[in-house]
Amino acid sequence: MRIAIFKLLKFTCMKLLKKIGFILLAAIVLAQFFSPKENNGELSSLTLFINETKPSEEVHKILKTACFDCHSNTTRYPWYSKITPINFWMTHHIDEGKEELNFSEWANYSLKRKEHKMEEVYEEVEKRHMPLGSYTWTHTDARLSDEEIQKVVLWAKQAQSDYKKQLEKE
Q1: Which tens digits make up the pLDDT trace of 122-169?
Q2: What residue stretches are annotated with the Haem-binding domain (predicted)?
Q3: Strand (E) or helix (H) holding 17
Q4: What is the dihedral of CA 74, 43, 141, 56, to 10 degrees?
Q5: Alpha carbons 125 and 118: distance in angstroms, whole number
Q6: Which sequence spans correspond to the domains of the chain?
Q7: How confident is the model at residue 89 (pLDDT cuts 50, 70, 90)?
Q8: CA distance 119 to 122
Q9: C-beta separation of 129 from 100 below 8 A
Q10: CA 75 to each of CA 38, 54, 102, 141: distance values in angstroms, whole numbers, following the listed order
Q11: Which of 144, 99, 103, 142 is nearest to 126 (CA)?
Q12: Distance of CA 96 to CAs 68, 91, 145, Å?
């Protein structure tokens, strides 16, 4: 009798697990039809920022590979960004980055805010807080060498200094 009950429970549990597995699989497949809006703005939205801060070609390249994906309205999406729920996580991450600093919205920043943001740029890069480890883990080209960090820091300090001088004139 005990063996029969055990077999019945085992059979029932297996059926339940199969149903749960099927439902989860169906939910994952169905979720692929829903995705958040992509961050595909125009590169020209960065023109003012580039013109004002005057990065060298090398620093501009670093900004493009290590910063602009999360801190502008133009994101280069990897192949796996089409997979739900990864795409929702990425969109949330990009939205958070743009909320903190959005180079595409540079024209809307006050002079004081621009000066402060450039200070934050060099501090975060110098302390290796940016780019985030979760980003460089999947975007190996965004991993900055000591030399690249130094170039970005020097550029950001110069831009911050230029903004500070403009503020003093006001």
Answers
A1: 999 999 999 999 889 888 999 999 999 999 999 999 999 999 999 998
A2: 25-160
A3: helix 2-31
A4: -140
A5: 11
A6: 1-31, 43-169
A7: confident
A8: 6
A9: no
A10: 8, 21, 12, 15
A11: 144
A12: 13, 9, 25
Tell me which H or E stretch contains 78: none
Query: Tokens 């883990």 identify what position?
Result: 137
Q: What is the pTM of this model?
A: 0.79
Most confident stretch, 36-50, 88-102, 114-128: 114-128
- Render 96-152 in DSSP notation, one character per residue: HHHHH--GGGGGGS-HHHHHHHHHHHHHHHHTT-SS-HHHHTT-GGGPPPHHHHHHH
